[in-house]
Amino acid sequence: MLDDYLKELQKITLLEPDEERALWQAYKDNGDMMARSRLIEQYQPLVFKETMRWHIHRDILSDALQEGTLGLMEAVERYDYRRGDSLKYNVNVGFISGQEETEQLSLTDYFPTEVYEIRRVESQSKALTKNNTYDLGGMFTHARGRHILQTRIKGSYGTQMGRTTNGSTDRTDGNTVSQLRRTRSDGDSRKLEASVSYSQGFNNDAFITASASADYSNNDRDGWEIDTLGTTSFRTNLRNAGDGSVWNVQGQFGFSKDISKVSTIRLNYEFDYRNERSKQRSVDFLNDPLGVLDLLNTYDYTVNASHNTLTFNYTFQPNRKVRLDAGIGGNATVANRDERLPHDVYTPRTFWSVIPRLDFSYNFTPQKSLSLRAQSRVDDISLEQLRGVIDTRNPLLLRVGNPDLKQPLKTDFSLVYNQQIAERSFNWAARFDGSHTLHYIADKTTYFTEETPLPEYEKAPLLGADTVSVLEGLGYDQSEIQTMIDDKTVGIWEEK
User: Coil, strand or helix: which one is 216?
Assistant: First the structure.
């Protein structure tokens, strides 16, 4: 099917301007469906050219061309030949409200043992969540010739509410132990998004695209945790109050040009910046009516990261048998984490990577083809993985990052041989896929059965003199901290 399509594509010749306008007049003014079919046929080379820009694999190229043709048919229906300019805009208003309520009950009877003769455990849980979201957005599009300018803007506001209750009653040989835990959380969020894109085509087979987008969001939240070990009296355990904000800015610029009838060059630059601020203050009222700061659940940090990627691609297709698409790119990533609570830690890192790519295909015959593809990409490293401070928020699983990690570079490659037997309506393919990761990151877990010093972390901020006082405020001294490290589990990110 694809080969037949390509043969028919080569038969198409460009229309003269007067002939093209006459076809549009015949279809739009007189309803001539033959003129419509002729127009769709004449614009098929454009569909093929735009589809090939995406470097789609031959196995799914037919499907992509079909989708492009459907888009072309829709464009033909909407196009007004009488106007050189087009101006479109729309405004969208939306509201979404949701509520979910769940309730679970369970009853468990245990067989008698040497410890107890009769035991029954009753448990129940209730949860209620409500969410409301309000959206307002608009889009503006201006087109003139081969110029297209499009802008978008959207704002949203949302509220969230959650209530949970979990309780259990354990009756064992006449003794009753009840537990009840209630949580409450309330919050609201705001988000603003904006984008602009521009494209320009030139008569010398050159094409440029440029786009930029930005979004900002923030949220405020407040919550309580109330629990009891008795059957009648409640006690306030913890109050959490926090907020956060996220900035994200992206930009892209692309240039492509046909330098000959068989070759094309493309230059592309991409920029991405993200800044995230997250804060939470937790106060424990269990033993002090004025409240005590809970450092295990209190944090204040800012994370920002920027990515700059520049790529150059060259496409060479001298005939229908051979197609080569090769490229080389460079990526620079700058990431910083500025932590204020529970520890004063600053983690800056910069990564440089070279990103190659290769896409080669060879058609032995219209029914036999071989393709080779290799594509590299960089994987992000979370700043938690680079944090050289032991995290004690979960005393049963302590974790620490590795500041010396390198950014992983993953390369995926595939080799595909495809053969069609048209007379039998039969197709078979042999495929080989693989991947390789440079600077692979893995988790290493160490179990300690006895007291074991960790001198490599003695200079870390968590174990240094500057933070001893903070930990003492939690009731720990230095020897108890060492015992926690020795007796529990430490998870360490390391480079392999």
Answer: strand
